[in-house]
Design goal:
This protein is of the alpha/beta class. The protein has one domain. It contains five helices and seven strands. A seven-stranded mixed beta sheet has the order 1-2-3-4-5-6-7. Helix 5 links the parallel strand 4 and strand 5. Helix 3 packs across helix 4.
Length: about 210
């Protein structure tokens, strides 16, 4: 049985990577954060909104199907995809919708123990709920807290997270920018478990 979940082939710095993503444009959390007037937040500058409203409009329908599929019920084992990659990204577009969405991601990781999965999220509430309900995170999942504040590098990951992802302006903290000017496949700081890296810093992209 072929999985109904859409897997995207990524471009740019994420060339040769694949991801399971959801629709940013209908995600309540994303829409609220994107409309924020806070100049010190990254969400009003969201790359995903720019791309999905621009030259990547064609991927909106499959991402919307993922949104509905992953957040509405716990999928059967047969409905989850087999992943042949060594490294895989959850949510290159979009954000966790609810606990069901998160549980489906964790089940995908369990089905594919030879692949390392990285999940970027700002939803500390859902991650906290996951652990409070005594669910167990698979060993091949890396949780990365996507810090919404620009120019405010977090020294330590929040509880339950493995790493933080931080944005700074181009001229700021240049020596600490370890996610700037390279492709993910040549770096893998985010994807390799227990590599001693807890803080990722990237300059704010322009779209």
């Amino acid at each position: 049985m072929k999985s109904p979940i859409h897997i995207s082939t990524l471009m740019g710095k994420l060339e040769d990577f694949h991801a399971i993503s959801v629709n940013t444009l209908t995600n309540e959390f994303c829409m609220k954060m994107h409309k924020s007037k806070r100049k010190d937040h990254i969400c009003p500058k969201c790359y995903s909104f720019s791309l999905l409203q621009g030259f990547r409009k064609n991927v909106v329908p499959p991402l919307e199907r993922n949104s509905q599929l992953l957040s509405s019920c716990i999928l059967n084992h047969e409905e989850l995809p087999y992943i042949k990659d060594d490294y895989f990204r959850f949510d290159a577009h979009g954000e966790l919708i609810n606990l069901v969405h998160l549980l489906n991601y964790m089940n995908i990781a369990r089905k594919n123990p030879s692949c390392n999965f990285a999940l970027w999220t700002k939803r500390k509430d859902l991650i906290g709920l996951f652990f409070e309900l005594e669910y167990v995170k698979p060993k091949n999942v890396i949780l990365i807290y996507s810090n919404p504040r620009i120019s405010n590098i977090m020294k330590e990951p929040p509880r339950y997270f493995d790493r933080t992802f931080n944005n700074v302006l181009e001229h700021e903290e240049v020596e600490r920018q370890n996610c700037t000017g390279q492709k993910c496949k040549d770096c893998l700081k985010c994807y390799i478990p227990n590599n001693g890296v807890t803080t990722i810093v990237e300059k704010v992209k322009r779209y």
